[in-house]
Each structure stands twice: as structure tokens, then as C-alpha cells.
Amino acid sequence: MASHDGWKYVLETKKGYVKEDGSFTSEVKEALLIDFWDFGLVDDTVKIYKKLGFNDPEVILSGVKEHTVSPAYEARNGIGIGYYTLMGYDFESAFYKARSDYNSYKLYNDDNIIKYEEEMKNKVLDYYRERKSAQVLNSSDGALLLYQTNEDSPKILEGTLKHFYSKIGRVFMYAIPLKNPHVEKYFDMNREERDYYNYFQQRGLIDYFVKRFNNDKFDFGLHFATKILDIKIINNELRIYLNDWNMWNNLEIAKGINLIIRDFYSEKEMHITRMFGSYVIIQKIDGELKAVKATSIPIKYCPLMVKLLKEVGGEVAENLLSSLDVSDAKKQSELMCELINQVVIKAGYFDTSRPLNSCEANVLFGASETISSGFKAGALDAAVIVSNNLGTIITTNDANTQGAVKRMTGLFYTSPSEEILKTATEAGIIPVFPYTGNINQIEGVKQAINMGYRRIAVTLAAQDNRLMASLKELENNGVTIYKFGLCSTGISEKTALTMLENADIIWSCASKYVKEYIEPKAIAQVGIKIPVHIMTKKGWELVKNHLAYMSCHLDDVTLCSGEEEPVILNQGESLKLVRKRDVHKCSDCPHPCI
Asked: Residue 4 and residue 538: Cα distance in Å, rounded?
């Protein structure tokens, strides 16, 4: 018997199933039934469509699929195998059960296949009714009792697929965590305002998703008859219930769904950044990206920010700097938003067409500069850092590390962009969350380890430095993680103590607790105005390597805490090594420390 005997199919398009006269129907039984032997093996089903005399340009452009009505005789065992494995049979047992059914049910008869499938559906349903509790789904087909099957619920891209069974057969639920900036971590807001910002990027998502899904589902591997049974947002998770999911095309379907969500996030762009210790919300409103809210500025002076602002900020920067001595929080907030609009946004920091490769060092002792030197020396395999419009990323060389962050200060929330994702790929950057732009450094390090990297630098900012202990737990099986503590202004005492126990290098910023707990325990220090504290020998190796690229070779330095702690100063055009006891009190440091 030929391997395709008995195979009959209809042609499926975006518009529906093709009828005998070339029109379309939503009912398979009304479509033109084609025997395999009419055309044989044809790779391009558009050719079959044309051979039948049909020439709808929209159909030809969007594609044509085969929708099997009766599988080939030799493939009909597979129907039973699928149902028996759903009922807990291993493959071998399911195969022999299905083989027996083929003969006893005379499955070489097309009508018998339909009856057999209905009987097997009922058997599977009875199996789960006896063994599982059900959840009720108020679907577009009415109330359905769903029984989760014995199959794995795999993670696919940024979502999780769960398998259910019901009276209509299989049901699939794809769940995707949604973005929520949790603005209460940074801003003191009333409930109404907090909810507005936290759910800004979720409002309207369901309507947008349904429209896009129904238009695009055919393109990423689902059938014309695939429909959304229900869609809802529960606990910041989008749950989509479908009556169909092509198991052979898992990745493409998940990609299509995630792309819809990414595009929605891009349209409702939102970021949270920080400058002078002030947290700032940036939103795209009416197509324009602008700063909309800022906290009052907790520090009165920062030499680094003054330097950078005077370089690029102009009159707006001068006005903001003048306001630091004023206690008018509202005025400060307005000026900070104006500064972000005029200096940060207009300078292209959130421009999704910006380049992501750069050799420009912005500050002498910055984190990205230190990491870049580590790559140049072959001391690092990968770095897990954060970048605007990308979220957590993995970089693997000095140019894309420096280019990904430029002069960026703290970044605590961001939105994805298709345009910059393409640029990132070309630059050799690996976005950990390409569809949501999430910031999660722990998951970033785990992915870097899974990719085979073993010497990994990772940056954490502000209160996220509390995650240092979790990072330390990942240091096994030959993995070394260089933990960089950044943006420490305003961190809690508990976070500072966690950094003390786990960090390798810490930037002091204007932190009261870094000065109180961390500075006395550091084994070396770089800089005076905004000290960089080296806490471990491996941290020192990276810093020493960076200093070597600045023509400062320090091979015989004795590392220690206290009065004999080595301190490297920037003195004019050169660097100088002194001891802590010889360092005078800084007159140009950030203040007040908080």
C-alpha cells in the first residue's frame, strides 16, 4: 500500500477553507475535498490553489495550507496513539492499543475515523473526570470544565504553555507575565495614581491582542479555525485559552504571540530612570516620549552630575542646579522632568535607532568602563547589564558593553523595541527578554551560565543590590561572578549589609550606609569624590586590569582595610597611589549622604 493512500485534505487560507467555486467557508465539510493522488507531493500549496484555477491575490500573498480531513491509512494509527498517551499509556503500549483499534474499528473507512475520534474523545474525558479536579472556564463556547492533562507544561520563550482537556477536546493555555513597574518602590503616590502608572502598559492590551491575533494567527502556524476561547489578565499575567495549538510549531506560535505583546508595549512606551537620586517616569503619550513625573531631589550636590550636566545641559541644567538649594519639591520635580526631556531624551538616550557599539569611555572609573577593560584583557566571558529599550542584556565584548549603556544612569524599568532589537543582534548583544524588555539580573546570569559563559560580570542598581546573595549562590561548577553594586544613593541598611557580604566592587554614590558599613571594610579604593570600593581580591583583579589600561600598573599593592588601605587618586593627567591615612577629607563629594 502506498504511503499516502487515503490522505484527503482541504485548502485553508486566512479567509477560510476554499470551496469548489473558489469562495470561502468556515466549515470544513463545505470545502473542496482533495485526494492526495490528485496532486501528489507538492511543497508549495499555493501551486495547488492556482492549478485549481483560483487566483485571489490576497490568498496568494498570505499563503495556503493543507488541512487534513482524513490521514493516510498508514498514519491512522497515530490518532489512537495520541488519545491513549493522553490517558497515561506509554508510547509502546499506546502504539499496540491503536494498532488493535485500527483493525477492530475498520479505520480504513473514512466514516469510521470520525466515529472513532468521537468515541476516543469521550474516553479521554471520562479518564480525566475520574482522576482530576476541574477548573471552570467561561469561554466563547459557553462554560467549559477544564482538566489539566498529564503532559508537561513547558516554558516557551517568555511564557508557559499548559495543556487541558474538555468536552470540546484539547484546550491550551499560554500564560505570559506582564510588565508592572511597581512604582510604589520609587514614588510616594496615592492608590489612584499608583494604579495608573502600574497598569499603564496593560490597559487596552486585551482588545489589541484579540484584533492582532485574529489577523496574524495564520501567519505563525495556527489554523483558520483557531479561536480564543477566553483571554484575561490575572495577577499581572496574560492568560490566553485556545482551542488549537500546533505542537510541531511551538516556538513559532509562542513567538507570534509574544511579538503582539512586544508591539503593544512599544506603542505604550514607559521607562523609569534616575538622576541626582531623583526617580523619573518617562512615558510615550500621543506619540511623544517625555518625562512626566519625578521625585524631589534628595541630594544637594554631586560632582559627577554637575560635570556631565554642564557639558550637555545648557540653561536647563543651570536652572536645575540652582534649584537644589531650594526646598520646593514641586519646582524641583518640574525642572527634573524638563532636564530629562531636553538633555536625556533629545540627546537620544532612548532613541531606538541609536548605535550599540562604542569605544568611548565616559568616566574614568565607571562600571561599563571597568567591564570593557576586562573584555579587552580576556578576563571576562560575558557581562549581564541593563540597557534602555532592551532591559537585561548579555554582552560579550568591550565595544557592545560600552555602546549599550553610554552615559545612562540608573534604569529600573524600560520598554522593548523591534528596531533596537535588530541593532542589538547585529552588535552581538543578547537580550534576555526580547519581547518584554524586563529587567531581571538573576535570570540574565542564569542564561549566561546556560550559554556556557563562566566568567561573568553583573551590575545591580539601588535596592536590587539586595539580590547579591542570590547571585553568589550561582557561583559553582567553575562559574565566577563579578558583582558590581551601583546607584547606591538611598539604599536601605539591610541592602548595604547584603552588599558588604557579597559584592566585589561598590560605587559609593551618596549613600550613608555605604560610607558607614562598606567603606571601612573595603580592601582598596579608587577615586575620592565618588569612591569606588573594592571588596574582594577578584574585584581588585578587574580594577587593577582597568587601571593598567590607563598606564597605572599596580602589581605589588598590599590589599587591606583601615588606615593602610590603598587608594588610587586621579591627579591631573596621571594616577597616584596613596594610603587611606594620607587622604584628606573630600571637599567636593556628593552631599548630603542618604
From this structure: 65
Spatial CA neighbour of 224 closest among 387, 62, 2: 62
Indicate whether this model's pTM tops 0.85: yes
Asked if 429 and 388 touch (Cβ cutoff 8 Å), the reply is no
Domain that holds residue 18: 1-75
In total, how many domains does the chain have? 5
At residue 471, what are phi and psi to the nearest 5 degrees?
-65, -40
Per DSSP, 591 falls in state: B
Mean pLDDT of all residues belonging to the chain: 92
d(CA 527, CA 308): 17
Q: Are residues 143 and 105 in the same domain?
A: no
Helix, strand, coil shares, percent, the chain, to 5: 40, 25, 35
**Would residue 544 count as lying in a domain?**
yes
If you count them, how many residues does the chain have?
594
Say how far apart CA 504 and CA 468 lie, in whole Å.
10
pLDDT in tens, 152-164: 888 999 999 999 9
- 3-class secondary structure for 490-551? CCCHHHHHHHHHHCCEEECCCCHHHHHHHHHHCCEEECCCCCEEECCHHHHHHHHHHHHCCC
In Å, what is the CA distance from 177 to each residue of 12, 157, 435, 436?
33, 11, 11, 9
